[in-house]
Design goal:
about 120 residues; mainly alpha
Amino acid sequence: MTILAGTVATIAGVFPAFAMKLLDFVAVYGFILAPVGAIIVFEHFFADKARIVKNYAAKTSISFNWTVLIAWLLSVGFFYGISVSQGVFLSFLTLPAWLTCGILFLLLSRFTQKSIG
């Protein structure tokens, strides 16, 4: 499989138009997924400092955590808007979107979580 994937990638790399479209796709894919990882990292490492409950959705048996969606939408929407309006390649905005999403998650969780007694 590795040889097959390498062969396909090498052949695709010969055609710059295809390779650039693939690069755009990978940039969008990474830009969309990275902030979700930020939520996981920030909750794991900073939940105690932010005084929020780790794994809040599981502990309260809620089926959907709106705080996660709102933090993700705000950070992705904001930085995607910058990309479109300023012509900045998405890969350059992935780290700022990641950090913003993690911080927003902590802040929003602090205001939305009810204490578990």
